[in-house]
Amino acid sequence: xxxxxxxxxxxxxxxxxxxxxxxxxxxxxxxxxxxxxxxxxxxxxxxxxxxxxxxxxxx
Length: 59
Hints:
The chain has helices at 8-17, 37-53; strands at residues 22-24, 27-29. It is mostly helical. It has a two-stranded antiparallel ribbon. A hairpin with a 2-residue loop joins β1 and β2.
């Protein structure tokens, strides 16, 4: 499956609609803060399962 990049102007439009996201050094970025390790690990695990089910493996 070929990966299609979003055009920079289109990406900027989309980022304006979704708070908290930015592009840093050419990569999509958002920082999350959790009250404790268990919450952070649970979130990471849920994201990992979603990424795996969609065959998407972010850096």
